[in-house]
Amino acid sequence: MKASIFSHSQPQPVPWTGSLVLEASPDQTPRAGAGINPLHGDVMWAAALRRLPLFSTLSEERLRLITRAASMKTFDSQAVVVTQGTQTGVLYVLLSGRAVVYRTNEQGREVILRYLPQGAHFGEMSLVDGLPHSASVRASRRCEVLLLREADFARCLSAEPMFCTEVMKALSAQLHRAFGNVGVLALMDARGRVAQALVELSEEVAGQRCIRHRVSRSEMGKRVGASREMVSRLLAEMECQGLITTSPMGWTTLNMQPVPAPTPD
Predict the structure, then answer these.
(1) What domain range includes position 51?
(2) Which of 95, 121, 114 is nearest to 200 (CA)?
(3) CATH code (residue 229)
């Protein structure tokens, strides 16, 4: 039997996939800025944030301070969360939804660098080096995002040595991912790049790699450097070969071993 196209693709680790979205307190009042709300519920939010690797080493007191200082903002699908070249002075944590990181050139051409699942964080590089954001972030579905201001981030760095370690791990992972992306684009053909993107988008569900939303051909084309038409053709070929299966809901399952093509009666 022919080996699966996904057999040599290493899925990105998915350290946490639970929901962090809690019911808002009925007396919650917006802070300055449309759609930005304080977290309230310090104890519940502290327990929820501890499930994220970035915050897992912080003391209970520090977590409570973060929940008092942080706020949350909702972004509709396709809304821009961060714009390339700007400075926001904020660490962002994706509490729910999904987002994409992308860069654009002067002509407006866009390339997608990576996908951000629920639980991911971004913006820490700009906080560490003080430079503008090197890429933009856009919600690919409705997102709720925790916002931690620079001063509170700096206090965590100075007071919590293990938090520094987690931040360094995150920055190192970004560097490794960047090198990996260069290798994928330079050494893989379009079919291999699409397969790799499918693995990156997927998560483990009941022992299978599954993408629990519709795969945008246009968005994937920007990720792998191919036209929408080519991505559509390659995905159709993979489905015919039993490498992927698409449900009526639009979810995509990656078959790590090809499913034999049905035989005619």
Answers:
(1) 36-182
(2) 114
(3) 1.10.10.10
Cα 256–Cα 204–Cα 164 angle in degrees, nearest 5: 125
CA separation for the pair 264, 242 (Å, rounded): 16
178 and 51 in a common domain? yes
> Rounded distance, CA 79 to CA 39, Å?
22
Contacting residues for 139 by C-beta, under 8 A, at least 6 apart: 75, 76, 77, 78, 79, 80, 81, 97, 98, 99
115 backbone dihedrals φ, ψ, rounded to 5°: -105, 145
The structure's pTM equals 0.62
In a domain, 161, yes or no: yes
Are residues 43 and 127 located together in one domain of the fold?
yes
| Total domain count, the chain | 2
Residues 115 and 230 in one domain: no
CA 75 to chain centre: 14
Q: Which tokens in the block code for residue 32?
A: 């300055």
| Statement to judge: residues 171 and 218 lie in one domain | no
What is the residue-level pLDDT of the chain in tens, covering all 265 positions?
444 566 544 444 333 333 343 333 333 333 334 456 655 545 667 777 777 777 787 778 778 877 877 888 999 999 999 999 999 989 898 988 999 999 988 888 888 888 898 888 898 888 878 889 989 999 999 999 989 888 888 887 777 777 777 777 777 776 776 666 666 566 688 888 888 888 888 888 888 888 888 888 888 888 888 899 999 999 999 999 899 999 888 889 998 654 444 455 4
For residue 7, is it within any domain? no
Structure token pair of residue 226: 């191919």
Beta partners for residue 90, in sequence order: 149
Cβ proximity of 113 and 184 under 8 Å: no
Give the whole-angstrom CA distance, residue 164 versus residue 159: 9
